[in-house]
Amino acid sequence: MKKFLFVLGIVVLTAAIFAGGMFAGAALDWYISMYTVSLFENESISASTTFMVVQMLDENKVDDAKAYLNLTLDAKIMAVGMLMSECDNEKSKRMATRILARIARHRQEHPVPQRDKQVDDLIRDYLTKAIAEVEKQEKQNKAIITDSQ
After folding, report:
1. Cα distance between the two ends of the chain
2. DSSP assignment, residue 89?
3. Distance CA 100, CA 131 (A)
4. For residues 124 and 108, is the Cβ–Cβ distance under 8 A?
5. CB proximity list for 21: less than 8 A, separation 6 or greater
6. CA 105 to CA 111: how far, in whole Å?
7. Checking CA distances to 127, which of 9, 42, 120, 134 falls within 20 to 30 Å?
8. For the purposes of burial, counting CB atoms within 10 Å of the CB of 114, is it exposed (0-12), middle (13-18) or buried (19 or more)?
9. How far is Cα 81 from Cα 102, in angstroms, rounded to an integer?
10. Closest CA to 123 of 87, 91, 79, 92
11. Do residues 131 and 105 lie in contact, with contact meaning Cβ atoms separated by under 8 Å?
12. Which residues, other chains included, contact 71 with Cβ-Cβ below 8 Å and sequence gap of 6+?
């Protein structure tokens, strides 16, 4: 009798694991389809906003196009700056830091009109940190090259 209960317990446990796998698979499929729709919508919106900028440029509204692109860039800078501490991939961090440093150097030559002091200060902070980090990396690279010669 004990052997029968043991086998029955294994069968019930196996059925429960199978059912759990089916449930998890169904939930994952729902999640993937939700993400796919979101990706589709994001790309549609991106195409629409890109088209809007092209229209502005076709209508010689260069200042409006630049203002919109700088505002969009500000949002991207803030997103990258906030997500930087969450990123575990050092290669991705270095790439993002170099991109932010390039943006910072460009903005030193082509200043953007200030809008909101707190937001502008936060963006300036992210860009300043990026320049400092890139300069530190460049010094380390030069030191390595000098030491190897």
Report:
1. 80
2. -
3. 8
4. no
5. none
6. 10
7. 42
8. exposed
9. 14
10. 79
11. yes
12. 115
36-85 per-position pLDDT tens digit: 567 778 888 899 999 999 999 999 999 999 999 999 999 999 999 999 98
User: Tokens at residue 76, please?
Assistant: 């991207």
Cα 31 from chain centroid (whole Å)? 20
SS (H, E, C) 37-53: HHHHHHHHHHHHHHHHH
Q: How far is CA 97 from CA 9, 11, 79, 136, in A?
A: 56, 55, 13, 11
User: How far is residue 18's CA from residue 23's CA, in Å, rounded to a whole number?
Assistant: 9
14 pLDDT band, cuts 50/70/90, is confident
Q: How many residues does the chain have?
A: 149
Task: Tally Cβ neighbours within 10 Å of residue 80.
Answer: 18
Q: CA 130, 132, 138, 139: dihedral to nearest 10 degrees? A: -160
What DSSP letter does each residue of 92-115 carry, written as one string?
Answer: HHHHHHHHHHHHHHHHHHSPPPP-
